[in-house]
């Protein structure tokens, strides 16, 4: 059965790329420097339907479902794939298989956490980083007071040991994903109906929901440990970083996002945007206004 995502990306090639730990469902189009787009929870690659076609005019655009999300199936031997380091390695292997040794990584939400981990772990491959509605994981936990817990309860619930969250989420998956997306988008009606159906179809699958829980379990354990190890020794992202965040939101106990990112990267710029958490869908034009010049300025690094 053809997934709704295919209708959102006319002219894109839909393929499956095999890596050591996963068979990754990928959409590709365009030519020129490579740009990797990584979606977040509880979505699929359909989240980039307003951004990817524009980028494909000047770049080779690669849009996968994250390992274990959507149609990207984990192999039975895969262990610990909630780890952003393991996800990043899997996606790096995918890019190599597609012939891209150097590329820009753009990540939103959970994909943003994979993206900055890739920039730290593969500095020769990731030539520029774009982070959408994300600051590093330690700062999120350090600022996790009552307001964060009430608004982002899934960070705590989904990080609980299996099978508790999986059992709870199985009760009414469509109710849960619609509730989540309605809050994130500040109105579920703002989402493209085909994208929404793609998210729902993927979320219906117990194995996808399990991987999402593994993602959040890693965020409360190994991901934070990996980040803290880097922060302790002062390791920073060397490539240029562009950051978008939810306008008016403070992170890490009330800090400005750019101040947080300045602790993690040498070159940082960015802008806050209104429109909720799902900015690639609700504020695509504003993202592109800043993103396209950023890519153009860094084209030499991408292709060098």
Taken from the alpha-carbon principal axes, the silhouette is globular
Could you give the distance between the termini? 41 Å
Overall average residue pLDDT: 95
Task: Give unreliable regions as ranges.
Answer: none
Describe the sheet with the most strands: 9 strands, mixed
Question: Helix tally?
Answer: 15
Task: Give structural attributes.
single chain, 304 residues, 9-stranded mixed beta sheet, alpha/beta
Describe, in plain words, how this protein is organized in 3D.
The structure is a single chain. With 304 residues, the chain is α/β, with parallel strands linked by helices. Helices cover 43% and strands 17% of the residues. It has 15 helices and nine strands. Strands 1, 2, 3, 4, 5, 6, 7, 8 and 9 form a nine-stranded mixed sheet that branches. Helix 2 crosses helix 3 and helix 7 (164-170) crosses helix 10 (206-219). It is globular and about 50 Å long.
Secondary structure blueprint with pairings:
Elements: E1 13-18, E2 22-29, E3 34-38, H1 52-55, E4 60-64, E5 73-74, H2 84-97, E6 103-108, H3 110-121, E7 126-132, H4 137-142, H5 146-151, H6 154-157, H7 164-170, H8 173-185, H9 193-203, H10 206-219, H11 222-232, E8 241-246, H12 257-262, E9 268-273, H13 279-282, H14 284-297, H15 299-303
Parallel strand pairs: 3-4, 3-6, 6-7, 7-8, 8-9
Antiparallel strand pairs: 1-2, 2-4, 2-5
């Amino acid at each position: 059965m053809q997934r709704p995502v295919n209708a959102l990306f006319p002219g894109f090639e839909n393929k499956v790329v095999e890596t050591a730990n996963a068979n990754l469902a990928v959409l590709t189009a365009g030519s020129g420097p490579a740009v990797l787009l990584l979606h977040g929870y509880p979505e699929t690659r359909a989240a980039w339907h307003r951004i990817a076609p524009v980028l494909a005019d000047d770049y080779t655009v690669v849009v996968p479902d994250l390992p274990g999300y959507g149609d990207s199936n984990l192999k039975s031997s895969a262990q610990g794939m909630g780890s952003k380091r393991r996800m990043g390695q899997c996606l790096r292997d995918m890019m190599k298989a597609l012939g891209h040794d150097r590329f820009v990584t753009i990540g939103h939400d959970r994909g943003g956490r994979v993206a900055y981990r890739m920039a730290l772990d593969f500095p020769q491959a990731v030539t520029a980083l774009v982070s959408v509605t994300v600051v590093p994981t330690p700062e999120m936990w350090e600022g996790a007071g009552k307001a964060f817990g009430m608004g982002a309860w899934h960070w705590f619930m989904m990080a609980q040991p299996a099978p508790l969250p999986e059992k709870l989420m199985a009760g009414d998956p469509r109710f849960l994903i619609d509730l989540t997306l309605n809050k994130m988008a500040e109105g579920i009606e703002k989402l493209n109906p085909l994208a929404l159906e793609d998210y729902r179809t993927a979320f219906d699958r117990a194995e996808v929901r399990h991987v999402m829980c593994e993602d959040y379990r890693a965020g409360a354990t190994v991901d934070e440990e990996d980040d803290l190890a880097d922060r302790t020794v002062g390791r920073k992202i060397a490539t240029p970083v562009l950051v978008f965040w939810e306008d008016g939101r403070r992170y890490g106990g009330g800090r400005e996002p750019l101040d947080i990112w300045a602790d993690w990267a040498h070159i940082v710029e960015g802008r806050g945007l209104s429109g909720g958490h799902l900015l690639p869908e609700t504020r695509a034009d504003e993202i592109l206004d800043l993103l396209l010049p950023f890519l153009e300025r860094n084209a030499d690094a991408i292709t060098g």
